[in-house]
From TrEMBL:
Catalyzes the NADPH-dependent rearrangement and reduction of 1-deoxy-D-xylulose-5-phosphate (DXP) to 2-C-methyl-D-erythritol 4-phosphate (MEP). 1-deoxy-D-xylulose 5-phosphate binds at K122, S148, E149, S173, H196, S209, N214, K215, E218. Residues 143-226 form the 1-deoxy-D-xylulose 5-phosphate reductoisomerase C-terminal domain. Its EC number is 1.1.1.267. Pathway: Isoprenoid biosynthesis; isopentenyl diphosphate biosynthesis via DXP pathway; isopentenyl diphosphate from 1-deoxy-D-xylulose 5-phosphate: step 1/6. This is 1-deoxy-D-xylulose 5-phosphate reductoisomerase. Keywords: Isoprene biosynthesis, Magnesium, Manganese, Metal-binding, NADP, Oxidoreductase. One of its GO terms (molecular function) is 1-deoxy-D-xylulose-5-phosphate reductoisomerase activity. The gene is dxr. Its cofactor is Mg(2+); Mn(2+).
Length: 381
């Protein structure tokens, strides 16, 4: 029986992780669950999975939930609560599925405590990839990808190392507005942006997909997970999201991973690695699909992808600032405070004012993150 903890259990990845757990009740024991403010759903999850520790965003929420919890479940809150669930349970495996760079301290704490990581929270690796991967290496900890593209690359590699690779290619659906011109993007709404063509996900990542920031974050995530230079990481537009990503090896063989878009597959693969278990995901019929489409990425149409490559290559605090500015810009767009195209204006403006620091330690990373958030919050046209 594998003992696990889930950070962000009430979100899109968190609930699908619990779906996988529920399909294999003899194989998993849930030791800890951390949520933000959805205490009704957290309580349902506690009733069903009986964790020993839970955490919520604030003391007020913890006080509200506490009287309803079974005697065996302890409750914590805030950043320390998240770290408690990440590092201080009997779990051997932690799924990191909170949204944003707020997941960094708990991910570091889980690694420090010797837990295997099922990594969904890509912002953590973008913000401080050098610190996370160095700590994982020092502790001998595996970072198993949950993000669909990275799970695909991981499956294609199947143990082969970076020296066999000519290039990896991450596929991109193009997001909610892939067929719109930049002119048309001026008038799009939040509701339209939230309609992803292929995946049902949390609102922040759905907006990131429409701006192509998501693919930019994934390029940086791939750099850290697979130890590849940016010159060996490509992106290809693939509207159907059937090929989740592929690897071209140095002998010119290409291996791709395919399947219907269903996050339960990469989540389960991370949880059961190196084994493959049966899954309820619908089978892919290529005969029914008939045809798959591909297109070169247009960096003029999707400038955030170009910015992400530039920040990745610059390194240091550049990706930290790219990510933090984007997190604030997306939350402002979702609050209808700025327009869709102003998301990229904010990222560009904040980056243009940033003095990149190389080899940043955790404190420098946190300062850069904080600085970028403040500028992005105050940004006006
Ligand atoms: N959704 C997907 O298919 C994919 C997601 N990812 C990545 O996975 C991560 C999660 O994405 P997704 O599941 O879509 O996001 P959601 O917005 O659906 O979920 C976010 C989770 O974080 C929790 N949370 C928010 N604030 C806090 C807090 N202060 N303390 C603890 N938990 C908190 C939320 O709790 P609550 O709701 O209770 O407030 C929720 O459980 C992101 O980094 C995303 O990029 C990667 C690939 C695919
Ligand atoms: C499911 C998943 O992994 C998301 O990150 C997904 O990749 C979003 O797709 P696009 O960013 O390609 O629209
Ligand atoms: Mn992805």
């Amino acid at each position: 029986m594998k003992k696990i903890a889930i950070l962000g259990s009430t979100g899109s990845i968190g609930t699908q992780t619990l779906d996988v757990v529920a399909m294999h009740p003899e194989q998993f024991q849930v030791e800890g669950l951390a949520a933000g403010s959805n205490i009704e759903l957290l309580l349902e999850q506690v009733t069903k999975f009986n964790p020993k520790k839970v955490s919520v965003a604030t003391k007020e929420l913890a006080d509200q939930l506490k009287p309803q919890l079974p005697a065996g479940t302890k409750i914590y809150y805030g950043d320390e609560g998240l770290i408690e669930v990440a590092a201080e349970t009997d779990s051997e495996f932690v799924v990191t599925a909170v949204m944003g760079s707020m997941g960094l301290p708990s991910t570091l704490a889980a690694i420090e405590a010797g837990k295997t990581i099922g990594l969904a929270n890509k912002e953590t690796l973008v913000t401080a990839g050098h610190l996370v991967t160095a700590l994982a290496k020092k502790k001998g900890i595996r970072l198993l990808p949950i993000d669909s593209e990275h799970s695909a690359i991981f499956q294609c590699l199947n143990g082969e190392d970076a020296s066999s690779i000519r290039q990896i290619t991450l596929t991109a659906s193009g997001g909610s507005f892939r067929d719109l011109t930049r002119e048309q993007l001026q008038h799009v709404t939040v509701e339209d942006a939230l309609k992803h063509p292929n995946w049902s996900m949390g609102s922040k990542i759905t907006i990131d997909s429409a701006t192509m920031v998501n693919k930019g974050l994934e390029v940086i995530e791939a750099h850290w997970l697979f130890g590849l230079p940016y010159e060996q990481i490509g992106v290809l537009l693939h509207p159907e999201s059937i090929i989740h990503s592929f690897v071209e090896f140095r002998d010119s063989s290409i291996i791709a991973q395919l399947g219907n878009p269903d996050m339960r597959v990469p989540i389960q693969y991370a949880l059961t690695y190196p084994e493959r278990w049966s899954s309820p995901s619908s089978r892919l019929s290529l005969a029914q699909v008939g045809k798959l489409n591909f297109k070169e990425m247009d960096f003029e149409r999707f400038p955030c992808l170009r910015l992400a490559f530039e920040c990745g290559k610059m390194g240091g605090t550049a990706p930290t600032v790219f990510n933090a500015a984007n997190e604030i810009a997306v939350s402002r767009f979702l609050r209808r405070d700025i327009s869709f195209l102003q998301i990229e204006s904010i990222i560009e403006d904040v980056l243009s004012k940033h003095q990149v620091q190389s080899e940043p330690d955790l404190m420098v990373i946190q300062e850069a993150d904080h600085w970028a958030r403040q500028l992005a919050t105050e940004w006006k046209q």
